[in-house]
Amino acid sequence: MGLRSVAVALAASSVALAMPAVADEGAPEFTGRLTAGWAMPVGASSDYVQSGFSASAGFDWRPYPASSWVLQGDLSWSRFNAEQRLVDLAQSAAPDVQIDEGLVRAWGLTGGIKYYFPFSPSVKGHPLGAAFYALGGVGAYHREVEMTQTVLVTPLPANCDWFGYCYPGSPAAGDVLVYSKGTTKFGWNVGLGVEFPLESHQWWYIEARFHRIETTNATEFVPISVGVRF
């Protein structure tokens, strides 16, 4: 009986010591992200739009601090000026309207998974240290195409004298919207990045992510961005 009592006591002590570690391991980590950078159209999209810029806000949810797997969500926005080929295409579809330039915007609301590959020891409170990561996600994208005509616009009175009489300013060039179309479609993205810890619960990263929107002619682009996670 004595040996049995000792064994039970040791087992109970082991469980008690292990419980804090399990609790710590199981504590989820939730962080936000802000990202901005240059966006490059690829594939057939590069024939119709120029390079532009992109920004996004999102979150990461790590099931426990030492996990290499992370769930993430993103709200992204990208903007591109139209190439002449897209202007000509719009002009041929609307020959009665003069079209001079245009732009394309893409919004994305996506969710996905990210996996980290650490390449340095844990530093500054980051359980994984500096790390490479790969990611992939799916969701809904909304693409907007707007075409404009450049016209002379007379501004509102800009000069007023001491007696209160106002005079119009000189006419200036302005853009008038002549065509607008929005399309919402399924899309997906994959990417690679590298992340470095700054301080406890703050990190910065560089990321390249390929986006594909399943429009009639697929819309494809790659933002190359710098971001902060906090």
Lay out the secondary structure.
Elements: H1 2-26, E1 29-41, E2 52-62, E3 69-81, H2 84-93, E4 101-118, E5 131-153, E6 157-160, E7 166-168, E8 172-199, E9 202-213, E10 219-229
Antiparallel strand pairs: 1-2, 1-10, 2-3, 3-4, 4-5, 5-8, 6-7, 8-9, 9-10
How would you sum up this structure, described in words?
It is a single chain. The chain has helices at 2-26, 84-93, and strands spanning 29-41, 52-62, 69-81, 101-118, 131-153, 157-160, 166-168, 172-199, 202-213, 219-229. It is an alpha+beta fold and 230 residues long. The longest helix has 25 residues, at 2-26. The protein is globular and about 70 Å long.
Keywords:
230 residues, eight-stranded antiparallel beta barrel, globular, two-stranded antiparallel sheet, alpha+beta
Low-confidence stretches: 6-24
| Coarse morphology | globular
Q: Helices and strands, in N-to-C order?
A: HEEEHEEEEEEE
Euclidean distance between termini CA atoms = 55 Å
Number of strands: 10
Specify the structural class.
alpha+beta
How much helicity do the residues have? 10-25%
In this structure, how is the largest beta sheet organized?
8 strands, antiparallel, barrel
Q: How is the quaternary structure best described?
A: single chain
Task: Tell me the strand percentage band.
Answer: over 45%
Total number of helices: 2
The chain-level mean pLDDT equals 83
Q: Cα-atom Rg, whole angstroms?
A: 27 Å
Strand order of the largest sheet: 1-2-3-4-5-8-9-10
Would you summarize the structure shown here?
Helix content is 15%, strand content 59%.
